[in-house]
Design goal:
- Keywords: FAD, Flavoprotein, Oxidoreductase, Signal.
- It comes from Stachybotrys chartarum (strain CBS 109288 / IBT 7711).
- Its cofactor is FAD.
- GO terms for molecular function: FAD binding; oxidoreductase activity.
- The chain has about 500 residues and is an alpha+beta fold.
- It folds into three domains: about 100 residues, 2-Layer Sandwich (Uridine Diphospho-n-acetylenolpyruvylglucosamine Reductase, domain 3), CATH 3.30.465; about 130 residues, 2-Layer Sandwich (Uridine Diphospho-n-acetylenolpyruvylglucosamine Reductase, domain 3); about 220 residues, Vanillyl-alcohol Oxidase, Chain A, domain 3 (3-Layer(aba) Sandwich).
- It has 16 helices and 19 strands.
- The strands form four sheets. A seven-stranded antiparallel β-sheet has the order 16-13-15-14-18-19-17. It has a five-stranded mixed β-sheet with strand order 1-4-5-3-2. It has a five-stranded antiparallel β-sheet with strand order 6-7-11-9-10.
- Helix 6 packs across helix 16, helix 7 packs across helix 11 and helix 11 runs antiparallel to helix 13.
- The longest helix has 17 residues.
- The chain is globular.
- About 55% of the residues are buried.
Length: about 500
């Protein structure tokens, strides 16, 4: 059963912090967990073990023989202090939506499930504190209850902090910047159990690296975010549309003509081939953070070419559940095989994009067990993102973040896996080319990355940036415990 709803799929950010085996000496696998953590560690005989260890995607997923559920940052500190002296592989999970095959290096390991940190509240100064078990839905509901907002991603069930660490794109980024741009402080635990706070005032070097490459340095227990008053009182205009293949060129040309988007406008495209109806399904969601009549100025450009048109004025708290006919939220189902790749583009080259869509149809027709495969495009405003200097944080894609194309492989058997993976890999590689992407160098959003991209596409090509990240890695994770999620090399000479 595909997780795609009638015409959409969810784009889900990486949300786990990975910890592989390391080269520490004098380690063992036989020592018992510290007595202080009694009742916090469970093996496979626990009735809730499967529920506590299942991730969003099963594709090349990590496996576990025990799960540790810390209840406080002190528990987490004791746990990491113990684990770093053993030969156990270990991995932390907040939302569990990170799908990179790099996580599969952890087999028969220890999962650190952060679900007991699922809390959020707004402080007297209007900053918002969230625990690392909180989801985007928690962030939205908590902020809105105080009349505030912060930029979040589209899928409500994604872990808020996991997505933040890779940058944090979202519909409100034109007004509020990336989710990571709103971060003001984190409280976290390093590999050896040391508890620290990182902010502009404390461990500022690490705080820079956490915002764009944050899965590489430790496990965050909680974080503080800047918030803003609700735009338009929290009311957003949303229009969902269906299109026929014959109108695809017009859809793409109209989208390109709107670039750069108005700071309040966001577009999301969804494409997949329905093997039951033998039909290419093309969907578009137009969101405008403002009054309906202003949003209709933009939806009216697409509406004459659509086959189905539904519009509404909806509160921000319900937006992610309603967008694209509810299909994005329906993509939250865990435990299904998903394998994705991504590329950032300046615009959508009409000829190349039409060729891409037709290739999806051909692949699924030839391989019906890959019928969950799809393409999604997120076209978001960039004003507040690009307003910050390129060295503001470790996020390397400012001024190169207009469109995120995701090549989504979803399958029912091994043949579907092979076919969808080959298709996604081939087309991602084609869009590396400046002729396709519009950029001199490939830009891959780290949260959407796979395992076969050059690290420079994820973290930046500038030598100074790579050197700074490698220095942070060597300082804060010298033994490479946090290296199963697009690991930063400890030496600048190892970048590719």
């Amino acid at each position: 059963m595909t997780r795609l709803a009638v015409l959409a799929l969810a784009l889900l950010a990486g949300s786990a912090t990975a910890v592989p085996t390391s080269s520490l000496r004098c380690r063992n696998t036989t020592s018992a967990w510290p007595e202080a953590l009694a009742g916090r560690v469970y093996d496979r005989s626990w009735p809730n073990f499967v529920n506590a260890t299942t991730r969003w995607s099963t594709h090349m997923a990590p496996t576990f023989y025990e799960v540790f559920l810390p209840e406080t940052i002190e528990d987490l500190s004791i746990g990491l202090s113990y684990l770093s002296t053993t030969d156990k592989q270990w991995l932390a999970m907040s939302g569990g939506h990170g799908y990179s095959p790099t996580l599969g290096a952890v087999q028969n390991g220890t999962l650190i499930n952060m679900r007991n940190f699922q809390y959020s509240y707004v402080n007297d100064d209007f900053t918002m504190t969230i625990g690392s078990g909180s989801k985007f839905r928690d962030m939205v509901n908590t902020a809105a209850a105080s009349g505030r907002e912060v930029n979040v991603g589209n899928c409500p069930c994604v872990g808020g902090l996991g997505a933040t660490l890779g940058g944090g794109l979202g519909r409100l980024q034109g007004l509020r910047g990336l989710t990571s741009d709103a971060l003001t402080a984190v409280r976290m635990v390093l590999w050896n159990g040391t508890i620290i706070e990182a902010s502009e005032e404390s461990h500022a070097d690490l705080f820079w690296g956490l915002r764009g490459a944050g899965q590489n340095f430790g496990i965050i227990a909680e974080a503080d975010f800047k918030t803003w008053p609700l735009t338009n009182g929290g009311m957003h205009y949303s229009a969902d549309m269906l299109f026929d293949r014959s109108n695809l060129s017009t859809l793409i040309e109209t989208s390109n003509a709107l670039l750069p988007l108005n700071a309040r406008l966001a577009l999301q495209h969804s494409y997949f081939y329905d093997v039951v109806t033998s039909r290419l399904m093309i969907g578009l969601n137009v969101i405008y953070a403002g009054p309906m009549e202003e949003g209709q100025v933009y939806s009216s450009l697409f509406r004459p070419h659509s086959q189905l048109f539904v519009e509404q004025q909806i509160h921000w708290t319900g937006l992610n559940d309603a967008a694209l006919f509810g299909g994005i939220a329906n993509g939250c189902t865990p435990g299904e095989p998903t394998n994705q790749r991504n590329i950032m583009t300046r615009d959508l080259h009409p000829d190349h994009f039409l060729e891409l869509i037709d290739s999806l149809v051909e692949m699924v027709q030839a391989n019906p067990t890959a019928n969950g495969s799809a393409i999604m495009v997120e076209t978001f405003p960039v004003q507040a993102v690009d307003a910050q200097p390129t060295d503001y944080t470790a996020f390397p894609h400012r001024n190169a973040f207009a469109n995120a194309i995701v090549f989504h492989g979803e399958y029912l058997d091994a043949a579907g896996d092979v076919a969808s993976n080959a298709w996604a890999s081939e087309w991602r590689d084609r869009w590396y080319s400046p002729e396709y992407s519009g950029y001199d160098e490939p830009h891959v959003y780290q949260n959407y990355a796979n395992e076969d991209e050059p690290l420079s596409a994820l973290y930046g090509t500038e030598p100074w940036r790579q050197q700074r990240l490698s220095s942070l890695k060597a300082s804060y994770d010298p033994h490479g415990f946090f290296s199963n999620w697009h690991a930063i090399p400890a030496s600048a000479d190892e970048w590719a």
